[in-house]
Design a protein that fits this description.
Length: about 250
């Protein structure tokens, strides 16, 4: 009975040992699975981390690319604005240049117009003169009309000297002779009237000039020459008022 008890006890012990070995083995298997699971999780975590890190780097690169692209866009926009501003300034410059050119052309036309010949008609004669020539003649005649004969003599003399080929010359010499006569410069007056008659013997004022010559000759105490001039006047211009005045004077001179 004691032996049976020992056998049972041994069997129980063996059973316990076998039970403990199974439990330890089960526990060991459970630890291996856990380790593998942990390793697997670690690998997945590391892969995820690497993926996130790579994605972060890609995002950073993309962000830098976007920043660079925005900078380029801003640069292009700035260039466009600058170009637009330059174009607007160029348009203003061109417009201003056109205005200046138009003003310059207008001014040039006005200056050229001053030198363009113009047609005038004086004492029945039509001829061309420039505006300066006309202005100087009119100015000299204005002095004569005011009765300042000394100044008129000077002005008309200057005009004749300045414009020796002018169409005004016969008329200018006629009025110069009258101005010289008015200031009692008889020799100069006689010379000027004769110059006028030589230059334009059929001039509208030629009869008056011949009558004036006779007056000068009388002032110079040469009645014979005066009578001859009056007779020539009557022959050359018999229908003129000056010829009728010459006839009256001839009666007085006889």
């Amino acid at each position: 009975m004691r032996f049976e008890f020992k056998r049972q006890a041994l069997a129980s012990l063996l059973a316990l040992m076998l039970l403990g070995a199974g439990t330890a083995r089960a526990a060991l298997f459970e630890d291996e699975d856990a380790r593998r699971a942990i390793l697997d999780l670690r690998q997945k975590l590391e892969a995820t981390h690497n993926a996130l890190k790579s994605q972060a780097e890609d995002n950073a690169q993309l962000r830098r690319a976007l920043v660079d692209m925005q900078g380029q866009i801003d640069g292009v926009q700035a260039e466009l604005n600058k170009s637009r501003g330059a174009q607007e300034q160029l348009a203003r410059d061109v417009s201003e240049m056109q205005l200046r050119q138009r003003d310059a052309q207008t001014g040039l036309d006005e200056r050229l117009r001053k030198f363009e010949p113009m047609t005038v008609k004086l004492d029945g004669i039509e001829f061309q003169v420039d505006q300066t020539e006309k202005r100087d003649y009119d100015a000299a005649m204005d002095v004569f009309r005011k009765g300042d004969f000394a100044a008129a003599q000077t002005s008309l003399q200057r005009f004749v000297q300045r414009y020796p080929q002018t169409g005004y010359l016969p008329s200018a010499l006629f009025w110069l002779g009258n101005a010289s006569y008015a200031v009692k410069d008889y020799k100069a007056s006689l010379s000027q009237f004769r110059q006028m008659l030589t230059l334009s013997p059929s001039h509208a004022r030629a009869p008056e000039a011949m009558l004036a010559v006779s007056n000068v000759q009388l002032e110079l105490k040469d009645p014979k020459a005066a009578r001859k001039t009056l007779e020539d006047l009557i022959k050359a211009f018999p229908q003129s008022d000056a010829a009728q005045a010459a006839k009256d004077r001839l009666v007085k001179l006889r």
